[in-house]
Write a structure and sequence with these properties.
The chain is α/β, with parallel strands linked by helices. It is 35% helix and 19% strand.
């Protein structure tokens, strides 16, 4: 089994100190940085765009795990690739042609992620799983941090793990939304190997992010 990796979400960071926050995460043992990009259209919130990612990229060697919650997504993929994203994750509902968008990300030499909302079935992306590097299972409805974990997604993680094992695929299974010290064990047991966490990492144990990252890895 792959070791558990932690991808802290900077949605819960101090946006006025993002450079410093990313440095703190790097020093604390984060494996990558999860960047939530929201357009106020596909999801009801606005966050950051390519210029901010480009500025942050200069000061970090960590993998930038960029989750695009924007629609239509296809025409913006190159902008985020050029800005320094290492993994570009899109939603199947946000593109007219999922295969074409996957191929575009690959052509830009980036890893491909596809995200499934809580009510999006695995069937929608099953034909593309052999071409995907990462499946991001949303355990809350995207748009805002601090939401409660939806337990029903455990079944979806198990389905993805079963397909992965049976067909010998190599995609990572990442879970994002309400991840804490107790439910992290359940999602890892179900087959996840990357955990996204914002509130837990930045707020628990009086903000001791090193301790919080290490605790999430101890599953």
């Amino acid at each position: 089994m792959k070791k558990i990796q932690i991808s802290p979400s900077i949605l819960s960071a101090d946006f006025g100190q993002l450079d410093n926050e990313i440095k703190r995460l790097e020093d604390a043992g984060a494996d990558m940085i999860h960047v939530d990009v929201m357009d106020g259209h596909f999801v009801p919130n606005l966050t950051i765009g390519p210029p901010v990612i480009k500025a942050l990229r200069k000061n970090s060697k960590l993998t930038f795990d960029v989750h695009l919650m924007i629609s239509p997504v296809h025409k913006y993929i190159k902008d985020f690739a050029d800005a320094g994203a290492d993994i570009i994750t899109i939603h199947p509902e946000a593109t007219d042609n999922l295969k074409e968008s996957i191929n575009q990300i690959k052509s830009l030499k980036k890893k491909v992620g596809v995200s499934l909302n809580p009510d999006t079935k695995v069937d929608i992306i099953e034909k593309e799983l052999e071409n995907i590097d990462l499946v991001l299972v949303m355990s809350v409805y995207p748009g805002f941090g601090g939401q409660k974990f939806i337990p029903d997604v455990i079944k979806k993680i198990q389905i993805l793990k079963k397909i992965k094992d049976e067909k010998n695929y190599s995609y990572d299974i990442e879970v994002d939304g309400g991840i804490n010290f107790s439910n992290s064990k359940d999602v890892v047991s179900a087959g996840a190997n990357i955990l996204v966490s914002g509130t837990t990492i930045f707020r628990e144990n009086d903000g001791n992010i090193k301790k919080n990252i290490e605790t999430l890895k101890e599953v």
